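Model it.
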Amino acid sequence: LPDGLAVEDSYGDDLRTGVGLGGQGAVALEPASVIATMAAVTEHLGLGATISATYYPPYHVARVFATLDQLSGGRVSWNVVTSLNDAEARNFGIDQHLEHDARYDRPDE
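Modeled.
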């Protein structure tokens, strides 16, 4: 599983390179599936995932985390982010990263 040093480990202690590439390769697994698996084999560990509020519809995020909350017995949290750059936007079929206000309107929903 990725750790807090994944970007630095992958890019030779150069965070700027990792950020410039959108953290590509830093996280390979889909986080909700990993949390569901971890919830099944742990009892006391708090579980959290980062999922972009910019590119995932609010209903989808709410449904995913409500399910994870049930599966984990209330041990899940969501790290709300609005994404980082154009490279991340391209992962979702969008050419350019949304402007600041457009990105922050969605989490308010």
